[in-house]
Amino acid sequence: MAGTGTFVIVGGGLAAAKAAEALRDEGYDGRLVLVGEEHHLPYERPPLSKSYLLGKKNLEDTLVHPPEWYDDRDVDLHLGTRATALDLVGRTVSVGDELTGFDRLLVATGSTPRRLALADDSGAPVTYLRTLEDSRRIKESLQPGQRWCVVGGGWIGLEVAAAARGAGCEVTVLESLELPLLRVLGREVAQVFADLHRAEGVDLRVGASITGIEHVDGTAAVRLADGTSVKADLLLVGIGATPNVDLARSGGLAVGDGILTDERLRTSHPDVFAAGDVANAQHPVIGRRVRVEHWDNAIAQGAAAARNMLGAGLPYDRLPYFYTDQYDLGMEYVGHVDPDGADEVVLRGDPADGVFSAFWLHHQRVVAGMHVNDWDALDPIRAVVTSGAVDVDALRDVRVPLSDLVD
Predict the structure, then answer these.
(1) Global confidence as pTM
(2) Which of 37, 227, 241, 350 might form a disulfide with 111, Cβ 3.0–4.6 angstroms?
(3) Residues near 251 by Cβ (< 8 Å), separated by ≥ 6?
(4) What CATH architecture applies to the domain 328-405?
């Protein structure tokens, strides 16, 4: 396929940019079109709730590639343009007012923050975090004494809460579950993050149920089911994201919590692939479909999909990885816990010391692991998770090095 035909990438994010990079690096020199709905060049999103939000990075630092990279590699960019329809029979994508033909297509349309109608309809100052513009608006409000209310105790909500506290804002986090990150991390590790934020002065309210939101003199007044209320100069909603499947659905691709793909990131059409937040891919190691909304997955899946567009035929078997930085806590996590949760969580080290690791077990197999502030631990943790079958008693024993658990 190298040197012939037209490859189209729909999506202006990290997965799309990495796919374009891999196609050129692998020798594809045919026409390459990249369609992005945002007006910016593809950029990385983690800085939006971390270094860019904190003023440690500027716009140029977040770009996947500088502007000249696309010119040098003859990538036909269509930015600020939405792909609105897909015709699989005619092999065309509607881009603006034009039809763009393709021989192979990659859909990397990402996801969109879930909306909270109570907030959107209130007229109160409400924001979400997905784009550079969102991050800029939030950064302008990071002023000492500003009152912030964060709805949702997930990664985005907690990272922004940490940034707001660091800027001297008053912060309330409203989480509907018993603990933030409970579904992701389980009770033992979720408690670590709850304790961390409370120690940093966050008013963390768990089991919170919002009954109403009002606009009062330029502020948000949030009423809770327990009879209390929270007043905020800005309300940030972080309650998850929804995959952008409209384009895929318009062409008749199989969808279901994302675009359904096989292990090689191929969709229900043999010449159409999907990658990044939108891809619900069969995972050969995990043994079921997984949709991952993290930075590392976008990088690796974009490149893997590109190689398979060129005929490599390789299964995507990389385990999910993500990280977070909150206050003085840095964490890296690898693996995946099924929706029904883990049977056991093994802690190595004492969370009170600020350095520890954790492993999630399902049917006596390690399915995920993480470390906090132990920067030499990721590789052995990844090896343990990849192996899966380890001596659980030895895993519990902090005197046994992780490297000794894997042959």
Answers:
(1) 0.94
(2) 241
(3) 85, 86, 87, 88, 269, 272
(4) 2-Layer Sandwich (3.30)
Q: Per residue in 249-292, pLDDT tens?
A: 999 999 999 999 999 999 999 999 999 999 999 999 999 999 99
The rounded distance, in Å, linking the Cα atoms of 330 and 376 is 12
Question: Residue 78: how many CB atoms within 10 A of its CB?
Answer: 19
Q: Please name the residue ranges forming H helices in 10-89.
A: 14-25, 46-49, 59-62, 67-72
Q: Give the pLDDT confidence of 129-183 residue by residue, as tens digits.
A: 999 898 888 888 899 999 999 999 999 999 999 999 999 999 999 999 999 999 8
Q: Which CATH number fits domain 6-112+242-309: 3.40.50.980, 2.40.30.10, 3.50.50.60, 3.40.190.100?
A: 3.50.50.60
Which run of H or E residues covers position 165?
A: helix 155-166
Q: What is the length of the chain? A: 407
Q: What single letter denotes the amino acid at residue 58?
A: N
Amino acid at 164: A
Q: Please give the structure tokens belonging to residue 114.
A: 């879930």
